[in-house]
Design a protein that fits this description.
Helix content: 55-70%
Distance between the termini: 47 Å
Shape: globular
Radius of gyration: 25 Å
Number of helices: 14
Number of strands: 3
Structural class: mainly alpha
Strand content: under 5%
Length: 421
């Protein structure tokens, strides 16, 4: 059975020929951390410089491409979620995703909140309110904003999970998944290129996440190609559409960078951006197919687990480390010149890694067990009951329909049989 284990490790459905045990995709664990690190350097040595949070001497032009770590995350998610959904009911799928995502999110958001309100010149009550709204994972729906600029990706992920759960519940995800992803791509194409900005476009985008459909579908198709062990023309056409949709998002990001650039000396050719999507897709394919078994498996698994809290924490923690000297936090103003921005960047990097380790090692397991105990009877058990009831009802309908068909056939007059022969 394909699964993402309760601690978040990635396992493949294929078996080791020697022992019949599931093969863990260690390379995907490392690729996730590489994506998280790339986003960190994008925030600190590129976008942070453009908006003047960090000094211009820290500017690294190559860090511009670090933001595409988010695109890489979404393609990996398409692959891993398809893999982890195999042989699961909708309620089991939602439960596994909730346990994987929410405990670490709560831990990281509390840490971020504490750093926020510790800074001088910060409105603590406003930050606490924003944090509380962020716990919904969809704060814009209730008129709020995200506590951190990186949390918006969680809304995209959760919407994808809900879609998959619905498709599992309606028995579309397994036998008709391929037809659905083609339909999803067509909806994304129409919404991206044919529908003008407006209410309709926004509703379709919110329900089907059309801005990132190409990312998720690319991962889904890669998984299906691997399990079928072949690629056909439809797969190739779908991946080409994914390429176009991802490239559109990448170019939009480039326009965004041009709009917020406060130092005015950076630009990237659109022709270079055409190659971002195929590189990302190729990286995921290679990582999913490399039978890499490290000598220190536990370390690699831990690195993969740390990638999620590192992503959630590193942007805000790096900002905190950058400004505590400027705002004279705990009298650190006197060390402003001694602790240079290069040193602060190093502190931000290793501090984020340390915090991520502590979340994975201590905070997340505690929160996971307590949240599961609290929410199972209140939310997850009713969801399980609803899912089971729908499955039972659909089975009865199918049985009744089959019996009715047999009855009609048994009542067919001989004359009709002659006419149809």
């Amino acid at each position: 059975m394909n699964c993402v284990s309760t601690n978040g490790g990635i396992k493949n459905n294929s078996s080791d020929s020697a022992g019949g045990m599931p093969i863990r995709l260690y390379a995907l664990d490392l690729l996730r951390m590489a994506a998280a690190l790339s986003v960190f350097f994008y925030h600190t040595t590129f976008i942070g410089v453009l908006i003047k949070n960090w000094p211009q001497n820290l500017m690294i032009d190559a860090s511009y491409y670090g933001d595409f770590g988010v695109d890489l995350f979404f393609v990996i998610s398409g692959y891993v979620i398809t893999m982890s959904s195999e042989n699961k009911t909708a309620s089991n799928f939602i439960r596994s995703r909730f346990i994987r995502i929410y405990p670490a999110f709560i831990a990281c958001s509390i840490i971020t909140l504490l750093f926020d309100i510790a800074l001088p010149l910060t409105d603590a009550s406003e930050r606490i309110t924003t944090w509380a709204m962020s716990l919904t994972l969809f704060p814009p729906v209730i008129g709020g904003t995200f506590l951190s600029s990186v949390y918006w990706t969680l809304s995209v992920e959760i919407t994808f999970y809900i879609m998959v759960a619905f498709l599992i519940l309606t028995k579309i995800w397994g036998p008709k998944r391929r037809e659905f992803v083609i339909l999803w791509l067509l909806i994304a194409l129409i919404n991206t290129y044919a529908i003008n900005i407006g209410v309709t476009k926004n509703i379709i985008s919110a329900i089907f996440q059309t801005d990132f459909a190409g990312h998720f579908v690319a991962g889904i198709i890669l998984y299906d190609i691997k399990t079928r062990k072949k690629i056909d023309l439809l797969d190739a056409i779908a991946l080409a559409i994914c390429w176009a949709l991802i490239t559109t998002q990448v170019i939009r990001h480039n326009i965004y960078i041009s709009d917020i650039n406060m130092i005015g000396n950076f630009s990237v050719s659109k022709y270079k951006l055409i190659f971002v999507a195929p590189i990302i897709i190729t990286l995921v394919w290679l990582a999913a197919n490399i039978k890499y078994v490290p000598s220190r498996k536990g370390i690699v698994i831990k690195i993969g687990l740390m990638s999620y809290p590192f992503y959630l924490l590193s942007s805000d923690f790096s900002f905190f480390i950058c400004v505590i000297f400027e705002r004279n936090w705990l009298g650190l103003w006197t060390y402003k010149d001694t602790v240079t921005h290069d040193i602060r960047l190093g502190i931000a990097l290793f501090g984020s890694l340390l915090l991520s380790f502590l979340v994975v090692r201590y905070l997340e397991p505690i929160l996971r067990s307590r949240l599961a105990a609290m929410l199972y009877p209140a939310v997850l058990q009713p969801l399980q009951t609803l899912s089971d009831s729908i499955i039972l009802l659909s089975g009865r309908i199918a049985t009744t329909t089959g019996q009715h068909t047999v009855l009609l056939q048994s009542q067919t007059p001989p004359a009709a049989l002659v006419l149809h022969s």
